């Protein structure tokens, strides 16, 4: 598979963005009756501004705001028929912010993992819209493996990011790699400490490119600072992490701090 993303990963790490949902909630998103993906059509400027803030902070790859943008999940809000429109618009907003040289990762959450038709529909629209890779985000191991089987031999790389890694780590890693995952890792881990622990364990069992995108902390708790994230960068790189960013509770300040550390190495 020829991929500009994979070619770049072979040479150097790529800086990802920070949390989208956290910042939309700060701007009024109410998850009780709304979804972040709907903001790409109802509040596109707010989504674009968040993407732009991360790009200006140094992010080289943006996740499309499509975590729950599949027909099965969107039907809960009466928006299933808008599935294609939402995914296309999300990719367009991310591409507008990052430009042609940067990367857009088409984010797929686990909400349609038991609905392969809805999963495939979303993935097809994301690929047709020009994403550089598909990211299976916040999946369980079994969910990611099922999706990888569905997307085997697709025209873009598939990245697998779990929220928890079952032991033994070696077996879990190779289940993903054997099914074609171009990079493996985790997002939404509670802080950089657990993320570093996982990176160390994965480094012991594989030399595959790793993705790490931890949360800054649990809601209501003290959040880890941008500098705490940046301090972990040298060891992350030593462990083979090639995609680094932030999940819940992080902002463009975390991206900027990581960029500064990357620039000093």
CATH class designation: Alpha Beta
Strand order of the largest sheet: 1-8-7-6-5-4-3-2
Helix count? Answer: 13
Helix content: 40-55%
Radius of gyration: 17 Å
Class by alpha and beta content = alpha/beta
How would you sum up the major sheet?
8 strands, parallel
User: Which residues form runs of ≥5 with pLDDT under 50?
Assistant: none
Order of helices and strands: HEHHHEHHEHEHEHEHEHHEH
- Please identify, by name, the CATH architecture: Alpha-Beta Barrel
Per CATH, the superfamily is Homocysteine-binding-like domain
End-to-end C-alpha gap? 30 Å
Task: Work out the count of structural domains.
Answer: 1
CATH fold field value: TIM Barrel
What is the molecular shape? globular
Strand content: 15-25%
Count of extended strands: 8
Provide the residue-averaged pLDDT: 96
What can you see in these coordinates?
- Helices cover 46% and strands 15% of the residues.
- The chain has a single domain, classed as TIM Barrel (Alpha-Beta Barrel).
- The chain is built from 13 helices and 8 strands.
- Strands 1-8-7-6-5-4-3-2 form an 8-stranded parallel beta sheet.
- Helix 4 (44-57) packs parallel to helix 13 and helix 6 (83-98) runs parallel beside helix 7.
- By secondary structure, it is an alpha/beta fold.
What would the keywords be for this entry?
265 residues; alpha/beta; TIM Barrel; eight-stranded parallel sheet; 13 helices; 8 strands; 46% helix; 15% strand; globular
């Amino acid at each position: 598979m020829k991929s500009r993303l994979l070619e770049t990963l072979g040479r150097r790490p790529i800086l990802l963005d920070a949390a989208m949902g956290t910042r939309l909630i700060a701007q009024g998103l109410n998850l009780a009756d709304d979804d972040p993906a709907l903001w790409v059509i109802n509040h596109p400027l707010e989504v674009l501004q968040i993407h732009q803030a991360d790009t200006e902070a140094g992010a080289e790859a943006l996740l499309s705001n499509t975590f729950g943008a599949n027909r099965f999940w969107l039907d809960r809000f009466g928006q299933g028929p808008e599935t294609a429109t939402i995914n296309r618009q999300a990719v367009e907003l991310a591409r507008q912010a990052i430009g042609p040289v940067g990367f857009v990762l088409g984010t797929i959450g686990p909400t349609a993992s038991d609905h392969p038709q809805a999963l495939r529909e979303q993935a097809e629209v994301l690929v047709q819209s020009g994403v550089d890779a598909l990211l299976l985000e916040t999946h369980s191991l079994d969910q990611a493996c099922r999706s990888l089987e569905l997307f085997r031999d697709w025209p873009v790389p598939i990245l697998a990011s779990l929220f928890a890694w079952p032991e033994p780590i070696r077996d879990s890693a190779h289940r993903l790699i054997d099914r074609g995952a171009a990079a493996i890792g985790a997002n939404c881990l509670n802080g950089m400490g657990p993320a570093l622990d996982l990176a160390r364990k994965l480094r012991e069992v594989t030399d595959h490119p790793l993705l790490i995108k931890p949360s800054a902390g649990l809601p209501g708790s003290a959040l880890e600072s941008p500098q705490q994230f940046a301090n972990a960068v040298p060891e992350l790189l030593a462990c083979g992490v090639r995609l680094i960013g932030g999940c819940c509770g992080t902002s463009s300040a975390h991206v900027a701090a990581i960029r500064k550390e990357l620039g000093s190495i």
